[in-house]
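DM from R.C. (forwarded with permission)

"hey, sorry to bug you on a friday — could you get me a structure for this? deadline for the figure draft is monday and I only need the backbone to look sensible"
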Amino acid sequence: MQAEGEVVQLPVATHEPPDFAAFFADEHRGLMKALYFVTGNRADAAELMQDAFLKLWERWDRIDRIDDPRSYLFRVALNGFRMRTRAARRAARRIVTITTSPDPFDEVSVREDVRRMLLELSPRQRAALVLLDQYGYGSDDAARIMGIRPSTVRALATQGRAVLRASGGPYA
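My reply, with the result:
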């Protein structure tokens, strides 16, 4: 029993952080397993684990401000995995361009369809459309090439487009 007036001595709390090496020994195996499960790759899991422990070690002097160092460690590791995944996706989008190569049979079909539609036109209508629309000549240049007036070239092209529109062609 204590006598009256006697002061009770409580143990002095030392605010030294726990030992990082002991924390590492306790947690590294569990973190490695979790990261291997997430990544599916031992090398990636090991690298993420090292990065997470390094970040925690850099803050170890403030460990008392971290509520749960174990969950902090896992969160840092998983955030690292997410950042790497996003970076890999961005890089892949820049590098890999998805292009479809044209099917040569489609080109043959299109050419045949165009040829068949053009055969529905008179030779002068065909010439006017080809010069104006295919080669990009103006009506004055096309008229000079065909040996007719520019107004006649425009009229022939208009008539040819009307025939193609009626047949469901490119001017429909």
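R.C.: lifesaver. The CA atoms of residues 33 and 45 lie 8 Å apart.
me: no worries. The chain has a mean pLDDT of 83.
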